[in-house]
Design brief:
It comes from Pandoraea oxalativorans. This is Aminotransferase class V domain-containing protein. InterPro entries: PyrdxlP-dep_Trfase, PyrdxlP-dep_Trfase_major. The chain is of the alpha/beta class and 492 residues long. It has two domains: 182 residues, Aspartate Aminotransferase, domain 1; 285 residues, Aspartate Aminotransferase, domain 2 (3-Layer(aba) Sandwich). It has 15 helices and 15 strands. The strands form four sheets. Strands 1-10-9-8-7-2-4-3 form an eight-stranded mixed sheet, with helices on both faces. Helix 2 packs across helix 14 and helix 14 packs across helix 15. The N and C termini lie close together (7 Å). 51% of the residues are buried.
């Protein structure tokens, strides 16, 4: 081959001005009104640009602001809603973000105690080498050493915080590659991109079991994403529609007697991945993504382990003997506040009592993506996979299989590209007037909410269709540019 990947991506970087000019013209071609440019996008599931709250959630927050009541009353009602769906053996703890939830859970369930004589013990968590590991996989020192710089250029890495960051000083994270996945280097900011569509859950179980056995003396838990799509490695399902890889983690956690943490920040309680079915001890959500609530987080888990979590947050009982509180704990800084509590409760009640509009919005998104893909399909390389996900509240577009038989496919951008602002797909989408979301590792999520829902939660089809059409047309622009670079490359 006369053209290497790093040369190809370098030439893509050099051609970025041309791509952005074409994307600007795309805005006019698609008919995106000037007043809408930058005010709608492909997903409201982003904490840095969350979607608009549904009317019922907003009204609950406004009404509560004129009322006086102890906050544990709202916290207990959140618990009742969760228990009414998952059963009395489960419990809940509201918190100010999903990331804070991960921090509390790792401190409360994974990290060993520092009290006592002698050298402090260490603990190890096993994490699959998957997407978004800078969140659930960054609370320990990476093991084996080959992964020591795995977070070096990511925006949420501990070192950039100037302190000890999120990493616990007595915890290690053991990363395990998943059989069937590809870990190819891509992007202008060249890094490994986990390409997970073809993960083999049975072979992965053996690899994870081996790692757990090797590290059994220090093993303290397992942590994974809670997402349920092929692009995240969880596409292989059992007869009940449950991810076989998730179930493998649940089984291993039970066998080794340690907790299983599922980071489902971009997920939906009640309608999505069920912690009971995958054997998770705790599942962590972002309330301002798919859940449709205000900025905040929610931890749902088995009642016994949740005692540790709730104690850390100052929510579990009080010294004079009450069943719950809203006081001070070691992690009081993660308190979500009154309005977030009320909004979270309202969102959970909608998910439990009136899910039809939420499901209908996912169905409408699916139909729009199918229609627009049919329009663009003949101009795109084969190998694009579309997946509807109730957990993610929308549709996953994955294009890793456009790379076939040693041939270049549609350019793949790394997580590090997003941080460095060299993800040309995102940059072109912005130039076209559409707000992007996470589009790393050949994986794009389309969810309603970024200016594409009305106050009742119904999809504004005209806007969402424009956003989805812009996604496929931008992929076509990228593909055309990359094909021209290949054609102009010197031949051997």
């Amino acid at each position: 081959m006369s053209l290497f990947r790093f040369d190809w991506y370098g030439q893509l970087r050099a051609s970025a001005p041309e791509l952005l000019d074409n994307a600007a013209r795309l805005s006019s071609t698609l008919g995106i009104p000037d007043e809408l440019r930058g005010r709608f996008g492909i997903s409201g599931s982003n904490s840095s640009a969350p979607g608009v709250l549904r009317a019922a959630v907003r009204e609950a927050i406004v009404e509560s602001s004129a009322d006086y009541f102890p906050l544990n009353r709202i916290g207990d009602e959140i618990r009742r809603v969760v228990k009414s769906v998952y059963g009395d053996d489960f419990d809940a703890a509201p918190i100010n973000s999903a990331e804070a939830g991960l921090a509390v859970v790792h401190d409360a369930l994974i990290a060993p105690s520092l009290i006592g004589r002698g050298d402090p013990p260490r603990a190890r968590t096993i994490v699959p080498y998957e997407r978004h590991i800078e969140h659930h996989g960054s609370y320990g020192r990476p093991v084996p050493g080959i992964y020591k710089d795995i977070f070096a250029d990511r925006g949420a890495t501990a070192g950039e915080l100037g302190l000890s960051g999120r990493r616990a000083e007595n915890v290690d994270t053991v990363f395990v590659k998943l059989p069937g996945a590809r870990y190819d280097v891509h992007g202008i900011k060249s890094y490994v991109c986990p390409l997970l569509v073809h993960v083999n859950p049975e072979a992965s179980l053996h690899a994870l079991e081996h790692a757990a056995t090797v590290h059994a003396a220090d093993l303290a838990g397992f942590a994974t994403l809670g997402y349920d799509t092929p692009g995240c490695g969880y596409g292989a399902k059992d007869e009940h529609g449950v991810s076989r890889l998730h179930r493998a983690f649940g089984a291993l956690a039970a066998r080794f007697g340690v907790p299983y943490i599922a980071d489902n920040a971009w997920g939906t309680p009640f309608l999505g991945t069920d912690p009971r079915r995958i054997g998770a001890h705790v599942m962590i959500y972002s309330t301002d993504k798919v859940m449709g609530g205000p900025t905040g987080g929610l931890i749902i888990g088995k009642e016994d382990v949740m005692i540790n979590v709730r104690r850390a947050l100052g929510l579990h009982s009080e010294r004079f003997g009450s069943v719950s509180s809203h006081g001070k704990g070691s992690h009081i800084a993660f308190d979500p506040g009154k309005e977030a509590l009320v909004g979270t409760l309202a969102a959970l009640r909608l998910l439990r009592d009136d899910p039809e509009p939420i499901v209908a919005a996912v169905d409408a998104t699916w139909e729009i993506v199918l229609d627009e893909f049919a329009r663009a399909k003949g101009r795109l390389k084969p190998g694009i996979l579309l997946t509807r996900s109730q957990n993610a509240g929308g549709v996953e577009i994955n294009y890793q299989d456009t790379w076939r038989n040693g041939e270049f496919g549609i350019p793949i951008f790394s997580h590090e590209d997003r941080i460095a602002q060299t993800n040309l797909f995102n940059n072109a989408l912005v130039r076209a007037g559409v707000t992007p979301n996470i589009a790393d590792d050949a994986n794009i999520f389309i969810t309603p909410g970024a200016g594409t829902l009305d106050e009742t939660g119904k999809v504004r089809e005209d806007r969402l269709r424009l956003a989805v059409r812009a996604v496929f047309e931008t992929l076509i622009l990228l593909q055309q540019l990359s094909e021209r670079i290949e054609a102009q490359a010197p031949k051997d």
